[in-house]
């Protein structure tokens, strides 16, 4: 269904055209990245996301916490009739180095540390 909607609305990217998004960048278990001059595209394979809805909930959380580096939905990529992978776009911040105060400002009061590690403590 997502594939048909994406095709009908012009948001479908055939998998063979994903390389046109940018230069292949670092990839991991969940995303393949493609680096353009002003942004990074992330093609998410949904392996760790629990589905499209769960991924979009994570994106919403990220965008709320980090609006300066918010993700934008770019489209869906895939092989016709087989796979559908959301493509997210994020502004590229070249040569940036986060400062500890940036972390404090965004995360203060949102997490608490316990012996087993960290746990979310959203208010």
Fold and architecture overview:
- This protein has helices at 2-9, 52-65, 100-107, and strands at 12-14, 23-24, 31-35, 39-44, 71-78, 85-91, 111-114, 117-120.
- By secondary structure, the protein is α+β, with helices and mostly antiparallel strands.
- The strands form two sheets. The protein has a six-stranded mixed β-sheet. The chain has a two-stranded antiparallel sheet with strand order 7-8.
- It is globular and about 45 Å long.
- Mean pLDDT is 82; it is low at 113-123.
Topology:
Elements: H1 2-9, E1 12-14, E2 23-24, E3 31-35, E4 39-44, H2 52-65, E5 71-78, E6 85-91, H3 100-107, E7 111-114, E8 117-120
Parallel strand pairs: 1-5
Antiparallel strand pairs: 2-3, 3-4, 4-6, 5-6, 7-8
Q: Helices and strands: which structural class? A: alpha+beta
Q: Can you give the helix content as a percent range?
A: 10-25%
Element-level helix/strand string: HEEEEHEEHEE
Residue windows where pLDDT falls under 50 for at least 5 positions: 113-123
Indicate the radius of gyration in whole angstroms. 16 Å
Largest sheet: 6 strands, mixed
Strand content: 25-35%
Strand tally: 8
Q: How many distinct helices?
A: 3
Return the average pLDDT rounded to an integer. Answer: 82
Strand numbers in spatial order across the main sheet: 1-5-6-4-3-2
Shape: globular
Distance between the termini: 36 Å
Give a summary of the structure in a few sentences.
The protein has 123 residues and is of the alpha+beta class. It contains 3 helices and 8 strands.
């Amino acid at each position: 269904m997502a594939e048909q909607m994406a095709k009908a609305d012009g948001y479908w990217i055939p998998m063979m055209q994903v390389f046109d998004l940018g230069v292949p960048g670092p990839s991991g278990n969940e995303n393949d990245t493609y680096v353009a001059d002003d942004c990074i595209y992330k093609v998410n394979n949904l392996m760790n996301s629990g589905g499209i809805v769960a991924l979009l909930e994570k994106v919403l959380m990220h965008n709320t916490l980090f609006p300066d580096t918010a993700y934008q939905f770019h489209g869906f990529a895939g092989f016709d009739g087989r796979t559908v992978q959301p493509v997210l776009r994020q502004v590229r911040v070249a040569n940036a180095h986060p400062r500890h105060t940036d972390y404090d400002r965004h995360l203060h009061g949102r997490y608490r540390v316990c012996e087993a590690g960290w746990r979310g403590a959203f208010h």
